[in-house]
Amino acid sequence: MMRTDFESWQADFIERLQTGQLPQAHSPVTTISDSMVSSWYNSQLLSRFADLESRRLQKQGKSFYTIGSAGHESNAAVAAALKITDPAFLHYRSGAFFLQRAHQKPGTQPLYDLMLSFCASAEDPISGGRHKVLGSLELNIPPQTSTIASHLPKAMGTAHAIAMSKRLKLAGTWPNDSVVLCSFGDASANHSTLLGALNSTAWAAYQGIPMPIMFVCEDNGIGISTRSPKGWIAQRLQSFQPIKYFYADGRDSQQVFLTAQAARQYIKKSGKPAILHLQTTRYFGHAGADAEVAYRDKYHIAADFENDVLLFSAAQLVKRGITSAPELANHAQSIKERVARVAEQASLRPRLTTAKAISSSVVAKARSGDAKVRSETSINQALAFDKRNMHTPQPLGKMLNWALHEIMQEHPNALIFGEDVAKKGGVYHVTHHLCEQFGPNRVMNTVLDEQTILGLTIGAAQQGFLPIPEIQFLAYMHNAEDQLRGEAATLPFFSNGQYDNPMVIRIAGLAYQKGFGGHFHNDNSFAVFRDIPGVIVMCPSNGRDAALLMHHAVDLAQRERRVVIMLEPIALYMARDLLQAGDNGWLFDYPSAKEAIPKLGQPTVHGSGKKVAVISYGNGYYLSRQACAELQAEDQVRIIDLRYLVPLAMDSVMPFIEECEKVLIVDECRQRGSLSEEIITYLQEHQPNLFSQVSRLTAEDCFIPLGKAAYDILPSANQIKDRLQTMGVLRQ
Fold it and tell me: Which residues pair with 609 in a beta bridge?
């Protein structure tokens, strides 16, 4: 039996070729050419030796990633069955797929690119040295890091978006006849993210919605050290009807190619999705530091090498008469030496060395072009459905609805989707009438699954749409935060700015909702967004700002390729009054075409007093206005509405507070993890003299209960009023 450590294996493998110790080859398939079989074998061999070379370099401190593709190399035949225009979201053991796909793009240097990635070189053409990823813009492989099923929702979303491009007759990133490829491991088949993505794919296909996607489960039977129960993966993958199940033995690359080809033809003909269950074997442990002998019998480990796809592919070449076993041995030795030379070359290339260079791709590269120019004519056309109200002041929810009508009219690539957003118009009717106006292809309901909603968002964004999804409540976002944190926000970073995810995520959130609430519907924490590099969070407190910010969010997404979150205060959706019933003090006119879109980070200020500057946002700003009005202290107090919460532009806030004696921060979120902590820190670091005169008022560190009890843990107008008085503000 062959020795199983990676250094010894190379010599044993070449010796086995030299002596002709090959398994019984499968019968040649006449429809598959000799050159094609040779091509697969070369990609498989390159992938194997590249993995092993990376481990050797890792011991020298020159390579930094050793999760390899050894044993999975039959996926090269999957690549051969697909077009280069089929976007591929790859499992981290799909190195041979990557190398094989490059055959469809003459002039590429996939081996060198792969080794640059292994060595974290700044010249790596996909990540620029930020991670070892299988990705390439020219090969239509969006980069994935160590994905544990998190890429399935966006692959599913991409398939949906490609079909949507065809229905809407819009040219997308990928052609309308493309089939999405998404590969994953058998251990990932147990992950809730994967189950949700497959369920949503099946849900759509069941209704006849085209879903051109091929899922490939590269099943090696083990996840790190945990075995997959025998027969479990096959049973599980066959249960997602109407996703059609295909199976191929990974030892036989001919069978893999024909099966993958049949699966793609089925998808193209039917418009339905498919799963290819690809049986593989994992060699050399999970990664470099993983010693298989700690949890597997060494004789079983050695026996697995008898099923090596490289041996079976070599045997196929000999059986076809293309070459001899000794010639294959010489060829393998030549490939080994070539990979070593290329790896050594790559290991000497420069790496990222400065924080500025590393972080330069956190935000995607902006696209040239002017912002959409609003006009009174276009506004009147967009709001014609609501002629009765369009010239009268309205609350925040209505203003958002009007802004969305205008945006959908001006941006044919804009899509709105989420739970209940279509005919119902959303729980709070913010998307009312949009489905009737723009049709079910552009305004659609989704399954009740936030991971699916954000997966659709990422997929649509990568296909060239402008997605504006709705998350029904802020607390629901936690069900899918990895789609935002680990997928949407990281894509520009790990692709060196070549790929992006422009989107505007609308989230109904924050507290103070009356007659309905509790923890899930009155969530007053958005800390989850605040430490994600590159993400923008906006929060309007009134209707006029809501409309302006929504237009700004769309412009940032469309032209600057940003991930933008619009955090919408539920309690203010329909707020009409400020001080007393019927005063209509919180109704505003819709912004005219003459009104400029704000600059990023630009706050608004009410009042010009110099005694106390109140810094707040959302409900806190509304309550601060009430408190100030009740004290009749507008000449003593100025109230700053931040509007842009992430990133927090304190440099834009400072000019409004520097001439004030004291500062009060009103933060409706909890004391710990709230925005007020960041403001306090900034003032201490930049304005130590003023810092001694800073006070803050926050919610309690507590979950929000149901009913009126909620108001006992949240800041109130009376509390703000009392705090202002203790800070020297006198009632007039």
Answer: none
